[in-house]
Design a protein that fits this description.
The chain is an alpha/beta fold. It has five helices and eight strands, in the order E-H-E-E-E-E-H-E-H-E-H-E-H. It is globular. InterPro entries: Gliding_Motility_GTPase (IPR052705), Gpn (IPR004130), P-loop_NTPase (IPR027417). This is ATP-binding protein. Keywords: ATP-binding, GTP-binding, Hydrolase, Nucleotide-binding.
């Protein structure tokens, strides 16, 4: 099936649409991740970094970065003919965090993208989703030349609960990103099932 059409003789399928947030620190690869997997041309709201922003935009470790997201990235991916994900990439800098509450409204779950060279940059996103009980997983973006650590070492460094998935990924690679998004959906569904069971018992 092509999105929006159905095979001859079969009724059209009305897909379920789910909202996934992609969060993390400045320069961690959120825009790249959304662009790698989106089946539509992603909506981007990037602006050039300026001298005026130098005191608040720490580019240590990402010196080659010349632009920054100032509102959001938006993309779409069809996982199955009846399941479509809408991706919303959040801005990473603290001065844009006021937008997160609105963006997270109705979200099924989130990806917190992490860079092992600047792991502390994703603490705020982890804290945000934990406080609001929004299911999330941590995707460790394996940058070229960045140190590689076992998943459990990353979990310990971020002080994550045992049930929070941690996956290694390449934000540039479509198949790698798809595995991360599937992981978010599965994790959110499992938590929802646990909550339903807790209510009925």
């Amino acid at each position: 099936m092509i999105f929006g059409r159905s095979e001859r003789g079969k009724p059209p399928v009305e897909p379920v649409t789910l909202k996934i947030l992609v969060a993390g620190g400045f320069g961690v690869g959120k825009t790249t991740l959304v662009g790698a997997v989106s089946e539509i041309r992603p909506l981007r709201t990037e602006e050039l970094l300026t001298e005026a922003g130098r005191p608040v935009d720490d580019v240590s470790g990402v010196e080659a970065k010349h632009t920054t997201t100032v509102a959001m990235d938006f993309g779409r991916i069809t996982l199955r003919e009846d399941l479509v994900l809408y991706l919303f990439g959040t801005p990473g800098q603290e001065r844009f965090w006021f937008m997160w509450d609105e963006m997270s409204e109705g979200a099924l779950g989130a990806v917190v993208l992490a860079d092992t060279r600047r792991l502390e940059d994703c603490f705020a996103a982890v804290d945000y989703f934990e406080r609001r009980s929004i299911p999330f997983l941590v995707g460790v973006n394996c940058f070229d030349g960045a140190p590689r650590y076992p998943v459990e070492a990353v979990r310990g460094a971020l002080d994550l609960d045992d049930d929070v998935p941690v996956l290694l990924c390449d934000a540039r690679d479509r198949e790698s990103v798809k595995e991360v998004l599937i992981g978010v959906v599965r994790h959110a569904m499992a938590l929802a099932a646990e909550r339903r069971q807790a209510v009925t018992t």
